[in-house]
Structures are given as structure tokens and as C-alpha cells.
Amino acid sequence: MSSNAVTHTETPTQEALGHPSPFPEPLPRIPLVWGPDTYETLTHQISSITEQSPPGWWWPAFLIASGLLTGGLLAATYLISTGVGVWGSNNPVNWAFDITNFVFWIGIGHAGTLISAILFLFRQKWRTSINRFSEAMTIFAVLCAAVYPGIHVGRFWYAWFMFPLPNANHIFQNFRSALLWDLFAVSTYFTISLIFWYVGLIPDLATLRDRAKSRRRQVLFGLLSLGWRGSTRHWRHYEVAYLMLAGLSTPLVLSVHSVVSFDFATSILPGWHTTIFPPYFVAGAIFGGFAMVLQCLIPARAAYKLHNLITTKHIDVMCKFLLATGSLVGYAYGMELFIAWYSGNPYEWQTFVNRAWTGDYTWAYWVMISCNLLLPQLFWVRWCRQTPWFVLLIVTCINVGMWYERFVIIVQSLHHDFLPASWGRYYPTWVDWLQMLGDFGLFFTLTLLFIRFLPMIALAEVKSVLPMANPHYRFGPPQQYLRDEAGRYPTADHALAARYGPPAPPRTTIPPAEEPVPAFLPTPEGSGQPWGAVAEFANAQQLLQAAQTARQHGYTHLDAWTPFYVHGMKEAIGRQRSRLPLFTLAGALTGLATAVSLQFYLMTYYYPTIVGGKEYRSWEAFVPVFFEMTVLFAGFFTLFALIGLCGLPRLFHPLDAHPTFHRVTQDGFFLTIEATDPKFDVDHTREFLQSLGGHHVAVIER
């Protein structure tokens, strides 16, 4: 694409052409990303971040983050060796910074799954530039939250009591407790999110493997990518696996923070005992999660000059999500106050009077209201949504407000309970502060390491939404990507259009090989028998047409190799739908059966327990664990089925001997006809592939 600005030209109107129209011509659709004129350009732009030395700002940022992390480790060590008395927690404020930070980080992790899973199910393609970053933040946020359940119990060496394992007294956990539901919900959410993140990384890890210059990077990324090479036979399983994992992750977004809210809502404490907590917590988690994604994404976008991939449209849409979820959170604030008044319960009303007007922590309540309800209303203005520095300022305030929301819910509700004689204040100690700062240090340390060593943008997914990947895209001059009469661009993305020019059409030529490709390529440990014939094509459209033609000529053992999933290629090579959903269903049923057996055996037979007057066989309280284990086992079965059905790991393939095949994960499009095909003939098949327009045609040894 041209990097020169597009000059103003006169475009003939409908009236000038003799076709009067009462409506102005609409602006053309703005592409999701700008600038990369080839797939290789995009690959280099993102992969070079992990291949080159880090920029000058990276080391100071890493040292600051790792310094905070070291402080948190020292605080945790001092706490474990001394006891939880070093925290400021007291009676009645037995939960303070520990649970406040726990709930805060669990909420931060929700945006990643929303962007990756739910928007994927709704086919929102704008997510492709930001989903990898948000998925990584989900993993890191849950790791930060996982610090607290273990250390806040005091005796860290008894942390294994949280898991369903027999202890010294043969006493098992109470499966009717919301705290145990919390353990299953958070651990399942972390595991499924990790699987989802890793599955999405596999094609990009293969790209880094094929670009690696050192043997160490080749081996490392080769092992992590499991030998992925972009076969259409593999892509069909991959797409279904990704869809299954997205479907499994979607209800987790609702269940995890709903279960976290049960820790509070199932109690009778004023300020906690309310049914609005589950939807309130979920909306607040998505609200805070999106704010943290923007908090990290905007500086990374500026530092690595990713304006053409993460455009103002991405920031604008995410700000609209913040506006919507912030309004829902504000509604929940008002509903809490209304129900406290309408219920006529003096304890509930006293709690909210203490929060908003007369209490010791009234300032914290109004910080929460200002940051979470009032400031996001600025996003009604388009300039506020499309100005990155202003968005960064607002989301910083939102993150502060979301932390104070958890502080208000926990500390303000606890320090004034039923009896005035038991009221008290909470004073955090240096251990509380250092532990909290250490958690932020852990989060930002992991984020910086992720940016440094892994692609922060999903290469394969972004390639699939480039205009050149769409065979139906109309390539032409950007007639409407121009300034208006006042010399202004309609949007910031139109300014990008003027800067980068029109989208590039698919290439029609192939880069030459470094050395001539012989007609027959032996492998290092070959048998002398042909494996098949391979040909390279210029773009996905030519490859799709060649595969369809080969199929029409009677070839059946076909396969296409592409850097991203090409729609219609599966049918072109004669492949059916993947059987992977059957394995997902089998995993779900296995998880459900395991949960039923575990809970009923332990709670009704091995250690019969009556909780709240309920019968031994009362199953309603077992439902959360039923659901979590069903999703957990389904996720594991999906991952293992994907690996098995794709025949991975396969660290060596005969096609690796082809001198240009390493481009398949970057910008190469290859068609192969295997020697097992009944119509295969060494000379005739090679000539046939050449007649289809294939380049670098060769027969590969088995």
C-alpha cells in the first residue's frame, strides 16, 4: 500500500451520471485493520517484537514491576512465617484487603473471556486484534487472585484442605458451602481460559518456529506448537475446537462472579444479603475487566506503533462496552439503596446511611460513585471515546473505582454490623499495602513478559479478516476516504485510510525460492517412495479454485496448507464435519458423572453431613459443582481430542523438505496430492498441478 496521503479528487455523483438519487452515497466500510500490504508484512510487524531486543522503556518498566513483585513475595513470606495478625484485619472486619483484592482480580479476568468467547460466538470480527491480549490478562489476573485463598487462611501448609481430599480426621469439605463453590468456579475458569488461550496460540507459535533464526527458538516453539503446519484437515478440527471452547467459556463468565457473589449474598449480614449481587457482580467484573484491558492496551499500542492494527474503532467499541456496563453497575448501586429503604429493615437502611452519608468510609463510597458511574458517562461523547490519552485517564479512574467498590462492599458492611457495641474501624498495615502492590507487580511483570516473548496479536485471526483474504471484497480507489468541505476527516479511521491508501488486493505473484526447486525432493531419512506432490499458489482464492478443480478431476487425497482458515476449503478437498463435538459431549457427561459421584458419596455415605437442616441427599446445593466439573472435563476432552484428531504432536513432516514450505504459517498457500490417491502418477500429477497455476511444484519423498 502507498504510505502517501490520498489527495482530494472529484468523484462523479449519481446526478452527474444521469441517475438522480435522493440519498447521499454512503461511506464505504472501513477495514478493521490498516497498513499490511501482504501477510508477510503483518507477520513481521508482530513477530519482530518477540524476535528483536526489547525497546529502551521495557527494562525500566520490568524492573519496577518485578520490584513490586519482590515486595509482595517478602510480605507473603513474613505473613506465612509470623501469622495473619500482621494484617490489619480485626473484629468485626475479618475480611479486608485480602478478599477485596481477591474479588478485584477475579473481576479483571472477565473481559478476556468476554472478548474471546462471547464476541467470537456473535462473529464480531473486531475482536481479532485485541483478543490475545485480553486472554493473557485473564490468565494473569486469576493468578493474582489465586494468591489470597492460600495465604489468608494463616497456616499456609494446610492450604490443601481446600481441595476434596481426606485430611487427618477423614473430614471432607462441605460441598454446600459457597466458599467451596468458589474454589471450583475459579479453578475451572482458570483452566478453561488457559486451554482457550493456548489453543489460539498454536498457529502463531508455529509462525515463530518457522521464523526462528536460532536452534533454541526452533526447538522451543516447535515443541509448543506441537508441529502445527496449517493443514486444512487440521484447521477443520481447530475451528470446531475453538468454537467448543468458546461455548464452554461463555457460561463461565456468568457463573464465576455469580458464585463469588454467593460468598456474600448467602449470608445474613446487612449490605450483603441481597439477590441483586450475582448480576451486579458480573456486570461490574466485565466493566472493570474492559477498563484494565484498555489500561494495558493503549500504552502497548503507542509503544509498538500498532495504530494500524488496533485502531480507534477498537477503542471506541470498548468504550461503548464500558458505558453500557457502567450504567448497569450504576443501576445496581441505586437498586441496593432502594431495596434497603423499601424493605423496611432498619439494619439494612442503617448500613446504607452509614455508607453514603454518616459513616467513617463515606469518602470511599463517593470515590466509587464518581469513578464508576459519573466519569464513564463522558463516553457518550465521541471525542472522549476516540482520544486514546483521555480514554487512558478515564479507565485508570475506573480501575480505582472498582477496587473501592469491593472495599465498600466488604469493609463498610463489616465494620457496622447488627450490634453497635461490636462496631470498629479497619486500619491496613504495611503488610496489607505491600501485598497489594506485590499483586500489581505480579500482574504487570507477567504482562511485560508476555509482550516480550509471545505475539500479543493473534496473527492467524487478523490475517483472516484482512480485505485481501475476502474473495468478495471490492478493491478500488478510496473515493470517500477524504476530508469533508472543512478539511476534516469523518473519523480517525478515515485519516488512517488517507495515510495508508486503499486496501491491497491479494498478491498474484510468488516470491522466488532461494534456490531452484528440483522435481523430486528426498527427505533426510527417506524410503525412496513418493509421499505426494506439492504446489504453491499466490493467494487463498487461487488455492481454493485449484483444490476444486483437482477434486473435479477425480483426485480425492487432497490437502491444502494455509496460514489461516480459508472458508470453503474443507468442502473443496472433500472433507466432512469434524467429529470433535462428540468428544466434548463425552467429556461433559464424564465430568457430570464424576461430580455426582463425588458429592453424593462424600456427603451422604462417607461423611454424612447435615447443613442448614437439609437432608443428606438434598441435591440443589450440589448444582454449582455439577456445572463446573462438567465444563472442566469437557474442556480437557476437547483439547486432547484436537491433538489426537490432528495427529499431533508431529515434529517432522515430509513437506519440511520443500524449500518454500516454511512460508505456510506466514504467507504461503500450498496444495498437496498424496501418493495414496488412486489417480496419483509422479509425472502426470506434477504436470497437472503446474497446469492449475502452481509454482515450485515438486514430488516429496516419503
Automatic annotation (TrEMBL):
Membrane topology, as annotated: Multi-pass membrane protein
Question: From which domain of life does this come?
Answer: Bacteria
Q: Key word Membrane present in the record?
A: yes
**Transmembrane ranges?**
57-82, 102-122, 134-158, 178-206, 240-260, 280-300, 321-343, 363-383, 390-413, 433-454, 580-602, 622-648
Q: Keywords in alphabetical order, please.
A: Cell membrane, Membrane, Transmembrane, Transmembrane helix
Q: Where is this region: Disordered?
A: 1-23
Q: Which Pfam families match?
A: ActD, NrfD
- Main location class: membrane
Query: Is the keyword Nuclease assigned to this protein?
Result: no
Gene Ontology terms: cellular component: plasma membrane
* Compartments where found: Cell membrane
UniProt feature, compositional bias: Polar residues: 1-14
Family in the record: Belongs to the NrfD family.
PANTHER family linked to this entry: POLYSULPHIDE REDUCTASE NRFD, PTHR43044
**Protein name, per record:** DUF3341 domain-containing protein
